[in-house]
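Subject: sequence -> structure tokens, single chain

Hey, anyone have a minute? Need the predicted structure for the following. Not urgent.
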Amino acid sequence: MNVLVINCGSSSLKYQVINSDTEAVLAKGLCERIGIDGRLVYEPAGGEKQVTQAPMPTHKQAIQLVIGALTDSGTGVLKSLDEIGAVGHRLVHGGEKFAASAIITEKMIETMEECTDLAPLHNPANLIGVRACQELMPNTPMVGVFDTAFHQTMPKEAYLYGVPYEYYEKYAVRKYGFHGTSHSYVSKRAAAILGKPYDSLKIIVCHLGNGASVCAVKDGKSVDTSMGLSPLEGLVMGTRSGDIDPSAVEYIGKKEGLDLSGVLNVLNKKSGVLGLSGVSSDFRDLEAAANEGNERAKIAQQVFNYRVLKYIGAYAAAMGGVDCICFTAGLGENNGVIRKEICERLAFLGLQIDDEANAKRGEETVISTPDSKVKALVIPTNEELAIARETAELV
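Reply:
Had a minute. Here:
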């Protein structure tokens, strides 16, 4: 069965067509600048990437253009829409309502809309994509795969905040965690690579990119993760502050003359390594600046690495040990310097890094030495494949 995977943002849409039997990617691409002027990128397997400037005032027009490219008589990979057996949608926030992927129904959409307050930027955009696909493919089954679902196995001691319990009861204020599809995929791949049962391992997954999080997976279940009610909690990221004393919000607001929304905008979009370095939120720019002697860029790198190190140590303690540590996403997969600096400070766990293996970029590989007590792995994440698998299984 061919599964169309849709990852819909407020002004963008990423897509892939995956054959669920062979897990081959038939085509992939994205639509950018939806509602502005429109740009379609289409890349069929074995073919050349095509870039088309085309009006797409809404997500419906964007998806129409995607379908047109996929079914094009010359370069398309499908003869017709009938060859799409199901659509899998990446949905960000399911709150406590969804502990697993689910077939999309009107009732499910209503329930997800109730979670909009928890993800005001993401959920509405996700649902726009769902509605557009439903309109264009009314008879094709659709599945929602939630970023938060994998973390619904966390115990209360991990997800409750130290605030009045009534806030949890009335407003669902708690830790939810994100990147769940990635953490699930990578931890399962780690078990397969090590040749050990998934439900017998203690795994720490470091999803390190512009948005970053760490997850503790014990016996096949997420037991803690660094992101919280929103993606702002946890690690220092590209533009997000990560963990911060809540009183700093009031303090910064008074000093800068900002209201609550203004301070949160700073913490989400102007902080992280961008705010620390004054250079960029892109770690490649940061590394180049640090190599040229920029001290603030060096400090930003050190702060990032230290925060990752602290979470790994905390989760090793929470699980009573760790069998393997996985690195994934843009930084985790491609930056051997960051991996080495973090892993060298974990030598007390019995982790030893193989420098030759660690020099590789973007490859699925074990980067620890054969005699290392704790294994370290690089596993490129594949959220689209994970969504396709979940979709095919449910349909």
